[in-house]
Design goal:
23% strand; rod-shaped; 1 helix; 196 residues; two-stranded antiparallel sheet; mainly beta
Amino acid sequence: ASRQCICNSGFVRKYANRSFTCQCPAGYKFEDSGLLPPYERQCVRCERVSFKTAVDNGICTQCPFLHASTIYDGAIRADECVCGINYYMPPNRALPTSAWDGKINRTNECVACNVGADCYAEGTTIKTMKVHPGHWRVNAFSDVVLECPQQLADEICAPANATVAPASLNASSAALPACRGGHDARTPYCAACVVG
């Protein structure tokens, strides 16, 4: 009769090399308190800045770019890493894929939010970035956030994060401006639309 491996709570049985071993599942790292008996060993969820894809007793891997986090503890793939609070992923840069090569990629680094921008949610990208009241940006691909002229803010700037489309813009641009109707988001400070 073969000896069966009975794993402590939190471990999973893994068959390799004609035998079973107790390993931590994906998203969990092995932790040993250094105390005896062996039941002091446990699997602990990866922290929110890391992930682990394999079923083994290894460590978690840090997210592949600076200022990154995961939405929850215990992430199992690199593509679960997103920009942390107060940071966003700029245009023409990509979040990691599950086929990540294990190297920190400084070209895909998260960037601190500009004044007037709202990056209070994890995972903010240039497209999902919102603006604070009294601020605007030309479109969903611009990271330039401008303050509305104070004396005209209520007249020309739409309420924060509105998607009001001036008559001069076509329907495909409708979600981009943050100007009130009759003002053109393609111009500095939502200038009044020219009729004709």
